[in-house]
Write a structure and sequence with these properties.
It is built from 16 helices and 10 strands. With about 425 residues, it is of the alpha/beta class. The protein has 3 domains: about 160 residues, Beta Polymerase, domain 2, CATH 3.30.460.30; about 140 residues, NAD(P)-binding Rossmann-like Domain (Rossmann fold, 3-Layer(aba) Sandwich); about 90 residues. Helix 7 packs antiparallel against helix 14 and helix 11 crosses helix 12. The longest helix has about 50 residues. This is Glutamyl-tRNA reductase. GO terms for molecular function: glutamyl-tRNA reductase activity.
């Protein structure tokens, strides 16, 4: 099997396209099953965030696997395959490994170095594990990607400024509101992004901070944790009228902030971090309303800080990619080495059978001695070559050694995969 990653992000698609592609949390298990039911897909992980949707898959062929993934995404999103293709990026084998490590370390994030993606990737991996769609290959890839992300944050200062999509959005908001400290803020939504928003606002000295959520219990708990005030969802309109700054990050499928609701609220700066968007498109142009969404952040230089530590993270990623590729190459040679040893044992067994047929006078003890000796000779003869071929296979271009062994000894390995009979490479997240 080979690795394939296919996705769309803020780099390749606008918010309206990402809205259609976004996979709701409750829809992920069904989509995972749909993916692995395709002819060329053996394993699958789905990562869906506010600014990216990606499929990681173990496939039996590039073109077939890509076609399967694209067809499933087109069906799930309702976007015709021809239109969808213009928004997708595709990474295969080594490039897929590199991309996954860049994602986990925050190098591919809208805000370089943000740590939230690490938790989102972990959730995606756990969802695939629970759905039993992550096999040996994706288990290793995801575990190592999480470990690489942890290394990047632990060994460099790439996230020392506490940057996130929220902090980047607040920087943009400050350009419209001026000093944010002391401003009244309203957070709509008490999920992961809502919680991050409340924490970021609190650290920045913005306040008072109010929280409104359809589930009052979650809003109450979040407000208690940060000294904020929970506002009943039925009183949302009143809270909007009193706010200077609104951050909205719900999981609603329809706009929460309609044109009529925002028109009645008066002047506002709204940070819409939800996908699908929480602000109705027809609200654009309302007097006194400024909306900052994912599209705005993607084009803002404030949202793309140049961290001095980026080079150090890139070096970590490069070394970890090579380490993982060595494991993949070693995994490819393992079935071939096993087949060679089996072939040798079969030859010894056949020759012993012929010998014992001719020398019936051998006692059981003598037969055992001869058998042990011959098997030991074969094991010793194969030991050094097989150890060396594993070492060579782990080096760049090492895949040629597996093919050479199969050709020299006429070994037939119809179902050899990169994840067969290989020890784990360690460093679990």
């Amino acid at each position: 099997m080979n690795l394939l990653s296919v996705g769309a992000s803020y780099r390749t698609a606008d918010v309206s396209t990402l809205e259609r592609l976004t996979i709701a949390e409750e829809a992920v298990p069904a989509l995972l099953q749909k993916l692995v039911s395709q002819p060329y897909i053996g394993e699958a992980v789905v990562l869906s965030t506010c600014n990216r949707v990606e499929i990681y898959a173990a496939v039996s062929g590039f073109h077939g696997g890509l076609g399967d993934v694209c067809n499933v995404l087109a069906e799930a999103s309702g976007i015709p395959a021809a239109e969808l293709a213009g928004h997708l990026y595709v990474h295969y084998d080594e490039a897929a490994v590199l991309h996954s490590f860049q994602v986990s370390s925050g190098l591919d994030s809208m805000v370089v170095g943000e740590a939230q993606i690490l938790g989102q990737l972990r959730d995606a991996y756990h969802a695939a594990s629970e759905a039993d769609t992550a096999g040996r290959l994706l288990h290793e890839l995801m575990q190592q990607a999480l470990r690489v992300g942890k290394r990047a944050h632990a060994e460099t200062g790439i996230d020392k400024a506490g940057q996130s999509v929220v902090t980047a959005a607040l920087e943009v908001a400050a350009g419209h509101l001026g000093e944010l400290e002391g401003r009244t803020a309203l957070v709509i939504g008490a999920g992961a992004m809502g919680a991050l928003s409340v924490a970021t606002l609190t650290r920045a000295g913005v306040g008072p901070v109010r929280i409104s959520n359809r589930s009052a219990g979650r809003a109450d708990r979040l407000a208690e944790a940060y000294g904020a005030v929970a506002v009943p969802y039925a009183e949302l309109d009143a809270a909007l009228r009193e706010a200077d700054l609104v951050i909205t990050a719900t999981a609603a499928t329809e706009p929460v902030l309609t044109r009529a609701r925002l028109a009645a609220a008066g002047p506002l700066v709204v940070l819409d971090l939800a996908v699908p968007r929480d602000v109705a498109p027809d609200a654009a142009g309302l007097p006194g309303l400024t909306v900052i969404d994912i599209d705005s952040l993607a084009t803002s230089r404030r949202a793309l800080p140049a961290a001095a530590e980026t080079a150090a993270v890139e070096q970590i990623v490069a070394s970890e990619v090579e380490h993982f590729l060595g494991w993949l190459r070693g995994a490819d040679i393992a079935p071939t080495v096993a087949a060679l040893r089996t072939r040798a044992e079969d030859v010894v067994t056949a020759e012993l059978r012929k010998l014992y047929g001719k020398r019936s006078e051998f006692t059981d003890e003598q037969r055992a001695d001869v058998s042990r000796t011959l098997h030991r000779v074969v094991q010793q003869l194969l030991h050094s070559p097989t150890v060396r071929v594993r070492q060579l296979a782990a080096e760049p271009g090492g895949d040629q050694y597996a093919a050479l062994l199969r050709e020299l000894f006429d070994l037939d390995i119809p179902h050899a995969t990169q994840a067969d009979a290989v020890p784990e490479i360690g460093g679990k997240a």
